[in-house]
Write a structure and sequence with these properties.
It is built from five helices and two strands, in the order H-H-E-E-H-H-H. By secondary structure, the chain is mainly alpha-helical.
Amino acid sequence: MSSFSQYWSSTAVYIFWAVNLILIIINLIAGKKVRFLPIILTTLFITFFSLLTPHGQILFEYASFRITKDALFEGLKKSAVLTFTVLLSKLIVSSKLKLPGKPGEFLNKVFEIYDALISKPLKFNPKKLISQVDERLMEIWENIQ
């Protein structure tokens, strides 16, 4: 790998995460709820699985497990891209967004139902999960009629 592509790979990770930080701030200003635990867990898991295919300069080695610079930055970059898409969609997708035409009417209804689904958390009880989901869907159905 050339020195430019190595430089760009590490720089891209910093740029992606800086943009994600900006998107988090914009989401918070817009009143959207940003959950940090899923972002952290997604980043950890994607980076971990990226480290399973080591390539590049070895940064750390424990037994036969190697942490390499390229695999680490590749995992961080992939998780940053996924986080970016989630944060951007959270910011853009809204029931307040009105699109024209028949396809727009359909998408507006989808966004309205989606907002209703995520507006309040579902209490998780494994014994009553199906009935809880059914109640939530019926409640939404009655409100959009």
